[in-house]
Amino acid sequence: MGLNPGDLPHWHAATTVANMASGSSDHERDERRVFDEVIHSPIRLQVCAVLAASADPVRFSEVQTALGITDSHLSKNVRVLLDAGYVDQSSRSAQAGARSRSVTMLALTGEGRAAYRGHAAWLEHLTRAPAQS
Fold this sequence. Notes:
three-stranded antiparallel sheet, 53% helix, elongated, alpha+beta, 7 helices
């Protein structure tokens, strides 16, 4: 799947959570609402959102372009997700003319996808909570 720079601004946490939770009972959604300190960082939350939107691994460069951040900033945040076991990183060979080059691919692990869904559900619940006066 190729991402365009304009793909990410269309992402909205509440919409994403609503799409993920469709067909689930309120009780099932309650069990999955979990604050996740690793994912809560704005960059890591966006990385997870981009990766969750794809069934296939996504090129590192596509994630970088979608988020509009530097290579080093993305690398630092991906490292945290890797260390938590939330992301898999692999390399693939890609033809560039007559030469072959290595391309870094990123994908959410099962644990990472569950953690992202739980955190997104927690955020949605938080934004829907009745105002306390």
